[in-house]
Amino acid sequence: MKLWPVRRLKGTIRLPGDKSISHRAALIAGVAEKTSRLTNFSTSRDCESTLTCLEQLGVNVTRSATSITIQPSDHLRAPAGPLNCGNSGSTMRMLAGLVASNCLTCELTGDDSLTSRPMKRIIEPLEMMGATIQSSAGKPPLVIAGTSPLKAITYKLPVASAQVKSCVLFAGLNALGRTTVIEPTTTRDHTERLFNGFGVTVETSELPDQSTSISVDGPARFTGGEMTIPGDISSAAYFVAAATLLPRSELTIADVCLNPTRTEFISLLRSWGGEIESIETRSDRNEPVGSINVSSARSAAENQPRMIDRNAVPALIDELPLLAVVGSQLGGVEIRGAAELRVKETDRIKATVKNLRAMGADVEEFDEGLFVKGPTKLRGALIESYGDHRIAMAFSVAALLADGPSEVAGASCVDISFPEFFDLLRQVVES
Ligand code: S3P
User: Fold this and answer.
1) Mutation test of ligand 1: which of 87, 90, 393 has the most ligand atoms closer than 8 Å to its C-beta?
2) CA of 20, closest atom in ligand 1
3) 185 CA distance to ligand 1 centroid (A)?
4) Dist. CA 191–CA 171, nearest whole Å
5) Model's pTM, two decimal places?
6) Residue of 18, 284, 318, 388 marked active site
7) If you write DSSP's letter for every residue of 69-131 in order, what string do you get?
């Protein structure tokens, strides 16, 4: 994909449904009591992986242009072959919980990226609950022999991960008694909101040490129903960042997810001088939805390096490569405590450092983060996506700010989360 520098962003866009919410809504609908209709379902390849895995488990999925209808099966059935989760960590980790608790034996596999990602983090709690799981040294493919009922456990998350939390909560649906996840640092809470929204009570309380306890009582079954999935806030982030940095931009993103566990990126940009307003207009199944208005940032009063606090990392996890690009345009940014970035779809610390350097930025790489100096006028360059959708999109934003044309190699990987990315970008850029 070739990209040229642009003057500004202007217009109004609506985005396909949030990927995290779509995965969960589909899994919930797949084991609910009645048929569900999910409007504005994510168009991402990752969510399609979740749907095809559900179909292999006996769930009926009908796709139309604006919605999908999911007719659950009474009992998930053992699939004829391996469940291919593609590139999607969310599919594999959350589906593993569901499969383990439904007394099924099946194999979960994925592409080269997914089969190199760590799965011990879900194997451990699922085995504590009574499932048997074979893996190759903690990596996929996973052969899961589920059992029913599972044993209810209390599990303290060793890594801040919404996928692991959700895996245990999905498994808890068919455990006997109360399954509790203790979360030392808050992560996205869509599973909690949607379980409650679709008829399964999840109790959340704060513990004296400020960690959160999240419990579900099994066995439990969802009711199913209708939901309009709010636009993807992580996809919105690329547009928000570009409009913040390009002078005289004015952009509205309508009907987008405003769940507070996902909007830390916006709060941070505001604290860096961003002119970003968000207005909540409705909520659907406990998920707040509204519009975001962005205009270009006031010029930063003091161009000092910014520091991203390690405690803020889980709430910013998918936006960190983009924040490194934004920081390069301000007084620089230091990211610490982000080791998890090394085990995403690619090593996102390495990918960010290499691409920033290719564009002429001065960057230091740490084991668990990076420091990029700023402000830096980026050079147009050949950018490598490493097959990672978030790297491709973060550096497409960088390319809009550069001093000449850039090319993103392997840009079609944006389909993994946001196939409409380049088309929507074309609609709002002015050169
Ligand atoms: C997600 C959780 C995060 C995030 C991923 C989606 C989810 O992963 O990076 O893109 O939907 O629960 P981790 O749970 O590994 O932090």
Assistant:
1) 90
2) 11
3) 14
4) 12
5) 0.98
6) 318
7) EEE--SS----SS-EE-TT-HHHHHHHHHHHHTTT-EEEEE--TTGGGS--HHHHHHHHHTT-
Pocket of ligand 1 (CB under 6 A): 20, 89-90, 161-163, 166, 188, 317-318, 340
pLDDT tens for 301-336 read 567 899 998 999 999 999 999 999 999 999 999 999
Question: Strands, E, within 146-274: which ranges?
Answer: 150-151, 154-156, 175-183, 202-206, 212-218, 226-228, 250-257
DSSP symbol at 17: B
210 alpha carbon to ligand 1 midpoint, in Å?
22
Pairwise CA distance, residues 253 & 239, whole Å = 9
- How is residue 428 written in tokens? 């709002």
Q: What whole-number distance in Å separates Cα of residue 166 and Cα of residue 142?
A: 18
Nearest ligand 1 atom, CA 166:
12
Query: Is 18 noted as a catalytic residue in this protein?
Result: no
Mean pLDDT of 364-372: 98
Please state, in angstroms and rounded to a whole number, the distance separating the CA atoms of residues 20 and 322: 19
Residues 6+ apart with CB under 8 A from 349: 338, 341, 342, 365, 366, 368, 369, 370
Among residues 229, 389, 230, the alpha carbon closest in space to that of 319 is found at: 389
